[in-house]
Amino acid sequence: MIMRAPVTDLPIVLEDAAVVVGQLTILNDIALTFGAGRPTVLIGPNGCGKTTLLRLAMGLLTPTRGHVTWGGRIDAASTRRAIVFQRPVMLRRSAEGNIRYALKAAGVARSARPARAAELLALVGLNELGERPARKLSGGEQQRLALARALAKEPQVLFLDEPTASLDPAASKAVEDVIRAVTARGIKVVMATHDLGSARRLAGDVVLLHRGRVLEAADAATFFANPATREARSFVAGELLI
User: Fold this and answer.
1) Pairing mode of beta strands 188-192, 40-43
2) DSSP 111
3) How many helices (H) and strands (E) does the chain have?
4) Distances 215 to 60, 150, 206 between C-alpha atoms, Å
5) Do residues 117 and 99 lie in contact, with contact meaning Cβ atoms separated by under 8 Å?
6) Where are the domains of the chain?
7) DSSP for 23-92?
8) Which strand ranges, in their side-by-side order, compose the sheet holding 205-210?
9) What are 111-149's pLDDT values in tens digits?
């Protein structure tokens, strides 16, 4: 009997990828590989292309030029990838109801949904709030619920767009703890953030974007200890990139 290797979306490889809308070049000459392991964190000033890069790697956008492949495949269905945007929309139902809806959409059998929903609520620290209306949760709780919904499809890769934006320190820590738990389960996280502190705490490697291009990509320890470019040194020091 022929044994087939399990289908994987990793590595995600972007080869000279560009996104152009009209006369505006949002991303240009992007050459990156997202492989298994600790989170990859995308940093850079507003408008540098972080969200567009997440959408491109997720498969929500088609590159204007260049290629994106998932596990060596082109046009791979996103069944093993999930994305959480900066302002996730909560359904008009309970926290648990939001997760059950996501489980149904993921094709999980009805009989398995209650236990799986309880497991996901516990994973994100919301097991005491399952019956609360999702839209009455705090911002940090909604972000964690959005993470639980994304995990309902058991993704191999999870893309996060500014997951701690506008959250207080306690709520940010709770979200970061979920990201660590997700990483410990072997899920690859690719995250965009403005928060250099969060990047230092979570990143396995860092990608600095500016004006739609990759200025620097390196493992996190090297990047923060000894940035290779003048722009990276300025950004890490808290200066503005214009």
Assistant:
1) parallel
2) G
3) 8, 9
4) 24, 30, 11
5) yes
6) 12-89+155-236
7) TEEEEEEEEEEE-SSSPEEEE-STTSSHHHHHHHHHTSS--SEEEEEETTBSS--GGGEEEE-SSPPPPS
8) 81-84, 157-161, 188-192, 40-43, 205-210, 213-219
9) 999 999 999 999 999 999 999 999 999 999 999 999 999
Do 217 and 43 touch, CB atoms closer than 8 A?
A: no
For residues 179 and 158, give the distance between their C-alpha atoms in angstroms, rounded to a whole number: 10
Tokens matching residue 44: 């850079």
Examine the pLDDT at 3 and tell me if it is beyond 50: no
Q: Are the beta carbons of 195 and 172 closer than 8 angstroms?
A: yes
Architecture of domain 12-89+155-236: 3-Layer(aba) Sandwich (3.40)
**pLDDT greater than 80 at residue 185:** yes
* Structure tokens, 196: 């250099």
Q: Which of the four pLDDT bands, split at 50, 70 and 90, describes residue 6?
A: low
Structure tokens at 177: 């703890």
Alpha-carbon gap, residue 27 to 65, rounded angstroms: 10
Question: Can you give the pTM of this predicted structure?
Answer: 0.95
Amino acid residing at 7: V
| Rounded-to-integer distance, Cα 216 and Cα 226, Å | 12
Which has the closest alpha carbon to 149: 178, 192, 188?
178
Which amino acid, residue 169? P
The string over 27-44, giving b where at least 16 C-beta atoms fall within 10 Å of a residue's C-beta and e elsewhere, is: bbebebebeeeebbbbbb
